[in-house]
Q: What sequence folds into this?
């Protein structure tokens, strides 16, 4: 693994406090936490987790950069696609995990120019630190629209309109398993004097049946020693959203793949990724509470959850195709009179968002529909639903 930057003294104090809380949670659980519970503590322990504490997280001075932070055109393209759904359903927008609030700002500004503002743009954020930053950004960039913005404490019982999430699925705690002597074993995290360590234990029924379902799909057992991730909580979250969606669209963007690609035999160490100061690596037991821990998503599992919950798959496309189908070229043409510097900055951003072999292909957009809703055209350009 390439050398990672040293945390600054304040971050070292933060990670020691987070690690202590995790060790205490392990003690309470009898000495170890299953991997998903470990990730949950590392990311979301109240006041100490990566998202719930004061780590810098997103942006150039943080640990990673997301699509809305790269170019405003990302949010503008999404707005063009969801405007007809807002108009047809008469509903609101509900954004999950809004990060710094940039997607909300850019979607709202384009919806306004399209004359398609919803009555409410609702935000559901589990991180108090990020919710504060979102409020500050919205106050600064769209003071005349903040009356329409509302932060929710939890999921609404029923919702009509557009539910939206960028890189939320990959921030939901996930399990890990390893194949040993033909059986799936579950990975746990424990600790000793030298720090956190992985432990293999008998797998829960949920893990065993998920691995059986994967092997049935790919038509052969996964190889000996194969390690990968299971996004069971992300699946349950998706099902919950689709159940609560009465009429409208659930639109999710994330790093992910269809099940056959996800569990390809050569991908024998899974898709876990950690981010610390713009360095990507796969040691989730390091820097607890001050580094991001994510995994790619098995979009077949997400689509199954949505369909089982009564939704319909509206489309599954790469981010690059979504943006092209959403009128990226028109958005760019509208900048023809902008200062050259702005045009060059936008062109560089678009390259990053659409680059093959990187964000453009690795990130997928998946849309799930409920009720009578027309599929947004961007979900039809090179639709890959058939591979799910
Ligand atoms: C990788 S960040 C993405 C932030 C933002 N969407 C962006 O694109 O810049 C993941 C976000 O998802 C949030 N999150 C995780 N689980 C969530 C859940 N169940 N409901 C709502 N937000 C959640 C985290 O708190 C965090 O703000």
A:
């Amino acid at each position: 693994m390439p050398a990672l930057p040293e945390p600054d003294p304040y971050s070292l104090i933060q990670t020691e406090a987070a690690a202590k809380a995790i060790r205490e949670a392990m003690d309470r659980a009898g000495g170890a936490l299953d991997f998903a519970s470990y990730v949950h503590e590392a990311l979301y322990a109240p006041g100490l987790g990566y998202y719930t504490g004061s780590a810098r997280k997103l942006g150039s001075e943080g640990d990673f950069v997301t699509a809305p932070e790269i170019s405003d055109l990302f949010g503008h393209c999404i707005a063009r696609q969801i405007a007809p759904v807002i108009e047809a359903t008469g509903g609101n927008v509900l954004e999950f995990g809004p990060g710094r609030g940039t997607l909300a700002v850019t979607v709202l500004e384009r919806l306004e120019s399209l004359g398609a503002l919803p009555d409410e743009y609702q935000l559901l954020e589990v991180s108090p630190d990020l919710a504060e930053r979102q409020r500050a950004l919205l106050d600064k960039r769209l003071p005349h629209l903040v009356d329409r913005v509302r932060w929710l404490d939890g999921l609404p019982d029923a919702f009509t309109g557009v539910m939206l999430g960028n890189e939320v699925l990959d921030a939901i705690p996930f399990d890990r398993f390893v194949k040993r002597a033909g059986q799936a074993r579950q990975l746990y995290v424990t600790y000793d004097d030298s720090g956190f360590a992985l432990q293999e234990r008998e797998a829960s029924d949920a893990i065993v049946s998920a691995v059986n379902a994967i092997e049935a799909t790919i038509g052969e057992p996964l190889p000996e020693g194969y390690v990968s991730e299971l996004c069971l909580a992300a699946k349950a979250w998706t099902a919950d959203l689709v159940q609560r969606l009465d009429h409208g669209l659930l639109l999710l963007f994330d790093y992910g793949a269809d099940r056959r690609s996800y569990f390809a035999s050569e991908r024998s160490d899974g898709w876990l990724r950690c981010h610390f100061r713009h360095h990507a690596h796969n040691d989730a037991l390091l820097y607890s509470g001050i580094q991001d821990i994510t995994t790619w998503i098995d979009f077949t599992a997400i689509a199954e959850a949505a369909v089982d919950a009564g939704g319909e798959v509206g489309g599954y496309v790469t981010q690059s195709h979504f943006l092209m189908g959403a009128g990226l070229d028109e958005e760019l043409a509208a900048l023809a009179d902008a200062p050259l510097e702005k045009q060059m900055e936008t062109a560089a951003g678009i390259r990053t968002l659409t680059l093959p072999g990187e964000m453009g292909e690795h990130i997928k957009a998946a849309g799930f529909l409920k009720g009578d809703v027309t599929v947004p055209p961007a979900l039809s350009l090179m639709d890959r639903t058939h591979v799910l």
In short: The pocket of S-adenosylmethionine is lined by residues 51, 58, 66, 68-69, 96-99, 103, 124, 126-127, 130, 166-168, 171-172, 237 (CB under 6 Å). The chain has a mean pLDDT of 95.
